[in-house]
Amino acid sequence: xxxxxxxxxxxxLRPELDQTCxxxxxxxxxxxxxxxxxxxxxxxxCANRLWSALAAQGWTIWxxxxxxxAAN
Length: 72
Fold this sequence. Notes:
Elements: E1 20-21, E2 25-29, E3 32-35, E4 39-42, H1 44-56, E5 60-63, H2 66-70
Antiparallel strand pairs: 1-2, 3-4, 3-5
């Protein structure tokens, strides 16, 4: 399993409006934000598949703010 992490943190810790799934690529919009020492953005499908493994490794998983996506 290859995952890309995003090490850049935003000042206000809010997700960017146009995040895409780090596993599926730019065609799939991210729904979850996962953070440990880096960050991941995952779609619903990938988050459901990886949830227990990520949680067991200490990653925290948050639902992205849907209101931020609707603002566009």
